[in-house]
Amino acid sequence: MSITVRYFASLREQLGASEASVSADGIRCVADVWQRAQPGRDLPPRVLAAVNHAHASLEDTVTDGDEVAFFPPVTGG
């Protein structure tokens, strides 16, 4: 039982990793995923999240087998 965690753009560079896998045991929401994947590290301000390719809030539910992505806000034209 696991959750795939992906990091994008400058966040990937800061963490030195593009992905991780964490145990789904005891995880209820997106914020729990961050804490499990990055223990002792605060979530950077304004970081966005997605669950299974859909934008999500830190309180959104996560279950076994989900993919959770964290990425900085992006702008473009």
TrEMBL record:
This is Molybdopterin synthase sulfur carrier subunit. It comes from the Bacteria. Keywords: Nucleotide-binding. One of its GO terms (molecular function) is nucleotide binding. GO terms for biological process: Mo-molybdopterin cofactor biosynthetic process. It comes from Ectothiorhodospira haloalkaliphila. PANTHER family: MOLYBDOPTERIN SYNTHASE SULFUR CARRIER SUBUNIT. InterPro entries: Beta-grasp_dom_sf, MOCS2A, Mopterin_synth/thiamin_S_b, ThiS/MoaD-like. GO terms for cellular component: molybdopterin adenylyltransferase complex. Pfam families: ThiS. The keyword Nucleotide-binding applies. Signal peptide: none annotated. Belongs to the MoaD family.
